[in-house]
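Before surveying the methods themselves, let us examine one representative protein, pairing a chain with its fold in token form.
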Amino acid sequence: MGPGGRVLLLAAALLPLEACAGARSFQVDYAHDCFRKDGAPFRYVSGSIHYARVPRPAWHDRLRKMYMSGLNAVQVAASLPGCCGNQTLSCAPLTQITCRPWIPGWTSCCPGSSPGCTRTEGTSSASRWRTSMGATPPATTTTCVTCWPPSAPGWGPTCCSSPPTATAPPSCGAAPCRGSTPPWTSGQAPTSQPRLPLSDSMNPRDLWYMFQGGTNFGYWSGADYKGRYKPVTTSYDYDAPLSEAGDPTAKLFAIRTVISKFQPLPEGPMPPATPKYAYGPVPLRKQGEVLELLDVLCPGGPIRSRFPLTFEAVKQAHGFVLYRTRLPRDVWDPAPLNSPPNGVCDRAYVLLNGEYQGRLERDGQTTLNVTGQAGATLDLLVENMGRINFGVNASDFKGLRQNLSLDSALLSDWLIYPLDVDSAVTRGWPPPTPQAEGSRARLGPVLYTGAFQTPGIAWDTFVKFPGWSKGQLWINGFNVGRYWPARGPQQTLFVPGSLLSASAPNNITLLELEGAPPRPFVLFLDRPLLNQTVSPQAGTELPPP
């Protein structure tokens, strides 16, 4: 989620918006164990969507599809800071914001006396929701803030809230239709069938997590920790009723049928799937090796330190940091370059005098044998693969967290380069040198660029990486996310049509971290591949084990 954390919003009766007719209200009726909207019993049938994982131009389409499915509320996860007011949804007549202070670094939504907000203390529905998902419940109660967002048409900045009480409000229900988002692993993405425990009561118990998952664009995929570190895939499809691209699935229509048995459905057709297009293969050219482009990627120059510093110590939240030192002595026989357990977080690509040696990684290989002369340049490009964002692990510092040793002797005197690849992509690259253009594909971190034009359309598409190993993709300066076909199961990245130009060339930047194919190109398809693994040597698709 966002840099400040996550909060849970419950926006009731999102669509359609009604003209404001007198005072509106939303209350908790403890005596009858129900919610009341405008005085009448109200049962919300809610679905979860993370709007940060959905392109902004698609918000209306996704909300419309959720409304046409029979939902009358939507649950979203929002980023701090500024969640009260600055980040309220303009289509929400009523927004209930529930903060979870039990997660380190998270603050109250509305510090001080924010206009248009009132507070009530009580047991958090979010805490029950997190408990249903397997997380540790909070040790304290939370602050619930209920606001009329001023940006909503027809609504003023009037607040409503229930008085403080020790009685627990009605439960907000566990997720009755839950898929999952897989880690990068040579396995199969889990799927699920809808479980539909709708009942005849007016109690508000019905919530689908997720109704649409979306995409972990950029560096925002995060990670789980279940005995070992498990970075999450770029796709957050979640086997949800609305697919990653926002298309209605058979699961959605099954849910809609059940809802229709208990309350009327909106009139009108379900909006169709968005159009997709296979733009085909796009050749790429070598722009340059990361080590050759340090002046562009780190214009401020390196930080000097006797021993390694973490990402956090050099104010690098995401992405990559390059650590550089020199061999202190001649190493004629292979000597172990060693990291203590969890000393590398999360994955380090090791080069000696510019030649790729291999990698060190968290919960994986921690020793690599090297040889070289005294003074040889030793580089480690460390990748932050996502912070642990679920469970009880409170800290997840990135980079070289402990000293490395060479043949048991600690290495020191480091140059540390925080790389700002995103800004370099936005500024544009210098022309590649003739040596770069004509050189063969090398192992190790290398940047590639290319461009393609569409046939006068800007439709959604999916990009595949034949023969590539692992890396990051940008299109028109937008960080689409990580690819890792060798690990799988995800083989394609979703590219929303809103990122593309129908008339101008669409620019591609690709950072390959381990090894590019002899003929570098990417392939745009009209459908996703989310459940396969690939052999990078053979370039063939393998069935899940």
